[in-house]
Amino acid sequence: MKAISYSAYGTAAALELVDAPDPKVGPGEVLVRVKAAGVNPVDWKLAAGYLDPILEVRFPVIPGWDVAGVVEAVGPDTFDYAVGDEVYGYVRKEWTELGTYAELVTAPVRTLAPKPRELTFEQAAGIPLAGLTAYQSLRRVNVEAGETVVIHSAAGGTGSLGVQIAVALGLRVIGTAGAHNHDYLRSLGAEPVLYGDGLADRIRELAPEGIDAGLDFHGDGAVEVLQSLVKERDRVVSIADYEAAAKGAHQLWVRPDTSDLTFLAVLADSGRLTVNVEHALPLAEAAKAWELSASGRTRGKIVLTV
């Protein structure tokens, strides 16, 4: 099969399109013919070695955790899916080695769910990691309908899905973003506010009685700002500030979860969750996809088509 691979920690320049052996399919797994693979910042951060202290990596690595595709084969004693089923998932395994930037990937069934029927493969591949992150962040701070939540970096891949999920859950959403993304946030159902100096004061103008929860999807001091605004200090969660727990906030590490993926698919099929695919590039242009991701200027998602 064709796959993207790297043999040591490095930058996007180290990525190669290679011929790799077809993966073996074990019990509790299915072989997925990849139609699209989602690109996330963690992909290039992992390749740079930033996560080496906590994640087991075995070289050479085929990167990627997000996938949408079709079941090609099933492993022994695996009855959850049949050949031909359309699936999507967050295929994070016990160690990093055989990822989704390939024509074929093996996936434990616990990492998959039926693909949303109303979305393309490219759109579906943009959901798993970002959508699960947003949904699990909202659940971590125990949101309830009618509450007000601030989502920091609301126009990005995770933030834009988080806005839609929060709106679907009945929340009032205030989203931080650059001025050029404010109309986009309004279209998703959020009240936009400009990030940068004075952010806390601008949020107070919109919510003078305080906010109920805060989600930090960018870092850069957002945890402290959100903690100054929430009614209960422990209702702040971050995926970007690695000192969040020491500051009294929640540090979230997203987990594969079939039921959560199924919930997101239901939202998508009911028209309450869609994916803005900003860039859809062929597999061979994975390095370009990483450069676009690292620029931090992409609205929505980047995916690789296979």
TrEMBL record:
It comes from the Bacteria. InterPro entries: ADH-like_N (IPR013154), Chloroplast_QOR (IPR052733), ER (IPR020843), GroES-like_sf (IPR011032), NAD(P)-bd_dom_sf (IPR036291). Residues 10-304 form the Enoyl reductase (ER) domain. One of its GO terms (molecular function) is oxidoreductase activity. Signal peptide: none annotated. The lineage of its organism: Bacteria, Bacillati, Actinomycetota, Actinomycetes, Kitasatosporales. PANTHER family: ZINC-TYPE ALCOHOL DEHYDROGENASE-LIKE PROTEIN C16A3.02C. It comes from Streptomyces subrutilus. This is Alcohol dehydrogenase.
